[in-house]
């Protein structure tokens, strides 16, 4: 199994980072404006982008600590994979350890998603530090695959 | 073994991308201004950042196609790992498939390096598309680890 890993530090309290990961408004502020659904544990959140999207079941959410999603609808390569955000405090930053695990093969789409995840996590950081992120469809285009 | 994967598309010819990966001036334009050494096959390129740096032996370089480095000096987690850039053309973009492989464990430093690599590859894209990248020490700070 292959996995995508990232680490960012956000100059905001863990509660604010947690809110941006566990509310529809928060998620719409950094990942994609076209977000709806139920972001509570057991709920499913629907994220849509220009070419398609993902439905995430919220498997776990521990305030200020961790959020765990399972992909229940979306591209075949994503189905059944899990996305985990682990939070901790360090040097005045809330550190976000990001892990998207369960990829069956390191296909080219995984290379793309890794770079896009980095870009969206920097959007999360920007949202919390400046009040405005760069969610889809205003996200940074990184290639012909958007 | 764990690996970091990324994919960007650069609106520039493959020769220009290749030059940015195989000349000291090119590398200094997107990764770190403090770059010197011999960027030809068999040479060693020395990259330095505020907290330290990496020496890369150039194992292979095929114009417009691929560049392969081995880390011969640097942090313990990087020693012996390999960094590979594979180029191809698609939809008017030069696609860069990036792979940093041979990590023994997915340690927290690997999470950090994955996000930093994404940021530097976007700097490479910016260098080639606008004439100016964001190399160290002018690179984007992503956390308390810089």
TrEMBL record, chains A, B:
Family: Belongs to the AHA1 family.
InterPro entries: ASHA1/2-like_C, START-like_dom_sf
Stretches assigned to the Activator of Hsp90 ATPase homologue 1/2-like C-terminal domain: 11-129
Protein's UniProt name: SRPBCC domain-containing protein
